[in-house]
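Input sequence (271 aa), recorded before submission:
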Amino acid sequence: MNCNKDSALDLIRKVGVILGDIDISDDDDDDNDKLFEDPPPKEECPICFLPMPYANIGICGVIYHPCCGKIICTGCVSASVKEMREGTIKPWCALCRVPVKRTQKEQMKRYEERMKLMDAEAYFDLGNRYKAGDSLPQDLNKALELWNRAAELGSIKAHYELGLRLYTGVGGEKDKKKAIQHYKLAAIGGHERARHWFGTIEMSNGNINHAMKHFMIAAKSGEEKSLKKVGVGYKAGLITKDEYANTLRSYQVSVDEMKSKQREEAKVLLA
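Predicted structure, C-alpha cell format:
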C-alpha cells in the first residue's frame, strides 16, 4: 500500500487518541539511548515461574503479599483460594505460609514492616489501596505520596501511575514534562502500557518512525493495543513486511509464555 506520510498519519490517528503535542527532545540523552533498547525480562511468579506483565494487558493480574513482600500471579492465588475453600490447605499465604490476615490492623502492620525494609512494592500497593478505597479511606493525595516514595525506590509501576496523574492533572498537579520522565523510566523498565503511551505521544507529534519503534517494542512484550497500531502502520507502508511479521511472532511468543490454565480460570472468576 503506497501513501504519503500525511495520509499515513491520518490513518493511524483513527485508531488512537491523540494526547496533545509535547516536545520530548530535550530529555536526558542517556535515557533517550536506553529508550529504544529491548526491555529487561519480565518478573516471574515465584510459584508457577511464568512471566507476569507489568500492566493490565488482559492476560493475568498480580497480587502483592505484604507478609513476604512477594508478587504472585492471580492464577496461583486463585488456585490457592480454591484449595482453602475446599479445606485441602490452611488459610495462609500461597508462598510463605503465613496465616492470612484476620484484621485490617494486622494487614497494615505487615505493610509497615515491609516499608521499613524499603520495599518499593509495599509503598506502591498501599498507594493503590488508598486510590481505590480498598478497606481504607479513599485518598488520592495519600496514594500519590506513597507512589512517589515507591518510584524513588525503583517501582516502574509507580512511575507509570505518576506519569498518568501528572499528564492528566488528576489528583492535583499537571506537569507534562515530569510526566514524560516518569513514563520514560517506566518504559525503559519494561512497562508495556508506558511504552504504548510513548508511541502515542510520538505519533501525535508527527514522529512516525519513533512511534512505530515504540509500538513494536510494546507489542513484542504482549501489548495488544500496540500490535493493532503496528498492523495499521504496516498497511500504511510505515514498516516493512519483515518488521511486521517479526513483531507478530514475538507478540504471540510473549503472550503464550504468560498464559496458563490457572490464569485463564482466574480471568473468568475475576471478570
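Checked by second reader. The two ends are 40 Å apart (CA to CA).
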